[in-house]
Each structure stands twice: as structure tokens, then as C-alpha cells.
Amino acid sequence: MKGVQISKTGGPEVLEYLTDLPVPQPKEGEILIKNEIVGINYIDTYFRTGLYPSPLPLILGREASGKITSLGPAGNMYGLQPGDRVVWMGTNSYAEYTATPAEKAIKIPDSIPTQQAAAALLQGLTALTLVREAYEVKKGEWILVHAAAGGVGLWLCQILRAIGARIIGTASTLEKRELARENGAQVLVDYSKEDVVKRVREITGGEGVAAVFDGVGKSTFESSMECLRRKGSMVSFGNASGAVPPVTIA
């Protein structure tokens, strides 16, 4: 089968497009999926660069959507059958076929296109987890979302709008800021030209935000901390600009 794997870590040049990879065989509790749409996420670059260590060689990718071609020899298949259109989250999605646990797959409703399903699962669940578990956002709270026009950022804007939060979003271009605004951000800050901390303090009347959702990492960590109100929550969930250096709490 065709697929993309890495045999060593590094930049994009380590990606290997292969046409002779073996088709995986589903084990107990697994299903074999012929992938149609593969999700590409920042976490894939973390494994490629070695920021997240993993045994090599490695087929990258954490999510995809497609059709089930076969089932494993035994185990709970959660009602899934060959021919079902599913979206799944796991490992090794940069390939024509992936064997994955049935418990990690969901049958796609007829009303949802295959492409949208693949684009929604990992980023959507990430955003939902952030606003419900990392910090339970309440109606009326000021929340700062970095990279508000990114994949998770747009999901955050939509979910936070549904909750009734007041959203400050950061983005570097007018096009991105308008996209974030269309998806729920009320106030937009151009982080490439404006002092984010100063603007946040102005917007919140000097109080700061209840929480910061920061998927950028190294370049925004310190300023994100300065944007928080007293007893605010700093939620760092990504490293787009690099890993956050060790923090000494004194």
C-alpha cells in the first residue's frame, strides 16, 4: 500500500512516500479502514521532529475517515460493520489502510460529509476538552484564544460563543482576524503589531482574562501568563512556536 513514514526525525525532508508498505491485518478488537481523507495536525510535526519520541520507522498521522473493509477475528466491534463510513482517531493515518481499535472509531452520520468528519474529530475533541475539563468556562467570562483562526482556535471560538463567553482572539493577518470574528471572537488583536498584554488589560478593564488557551507555546507563554486575572487559568496545549522551556515555580 501507499503511505508516508519517517525512518529518522527532522524537517519535512525526512518524510518518505512509499508504495510497497504491507497492508496491516486487524487484530482482536480492531477494524481495517481504507482511508479516504486524512487529517493533518500540528502533533504530526512533533513526532516528525522528535519533540515527541516514538519508535521508528513510523507512519505519521492521528486521524482519518474512510470505510471499513474488514474486522478483526474477535472482540467488541461496537456495532461497526464492513462498508460503514467511519471517522477514527489513533495512529498511522498517513496510509491507504489503517488497522485501529474499533473503540476509537465512530460511524459517520449520513448528514456529515467524509471530509468534514476527518477535519472535526481531533481538533473538535481537543477544543471541547479544553473548555470543559482544562478550565470549565462560564458565561460572561473573558477568555483569550491564541491563534484564533487556526484549526483548534476556530473550534474554541465557536464553542466559547455557544457558552456565552467573551472572546479575545489573536491572529497575525486581517483575513485571519475576520475569520475568527465570523466564528465568534468579539475582540481581535494583531499580535504581530500590538502589545497583547496591554490590549487585554484595556479590554478587560485591568482585570485580565479568566483563562488563556495557548496552542502557540514558547513565543506566547510568558505574555499569556501576564494576561491572566488573579487566580486565572493558563492552559498550554501546543508547541507551534517551539516547546515551552522548563518553568521554575518559586
Architecture overview:
The structure is a single chain. Helices cover 26% and strands 28% of the residues. With 250 residues, it is α/β, with parallel strands linked by helices. It contains 6 helices and 13 strands.
Strand order of the largest sheet: 7-3-5-6-8
Number of strands: 13
Q: Indicate the radius of gyration in whole angstroms.
A: 20 Å
Give the ordered list of helices and strands: EEEHEEEEEHEHEHEHEHE
Give structural attributes:
13 strands, single chain, 5-stranded parallel beta sheet, 5-stranded antiparallel beta sheet, alpha/beta, 26% helix, globular, 250 residues
Topology record:
Layout: E1 3-6, E2 16-18, E3 30-38, H1 42-49, E4 58-59, E5 63-71, E6 85-89, E7 97-101, E8 105-107, H2 114-134, E9 142-145, H3 151-163, E10 166-171, H4 174-182, E11 187-190, H5 196-203, E12 209-214, H6 221-226, E13 228-236
Parallel strand pairs: 9-10, 9-12, 10-11, 12-13
Antiparallel strand pairs: 1-2, 1-4, 3-5, 3-7, 5-6, 6-8
Helix pairs in contact: 2-3
Summarize the structure.
By secondary structure, this protein is of the alpha/beta class. Helix content is about 25%, strand content about 30%.
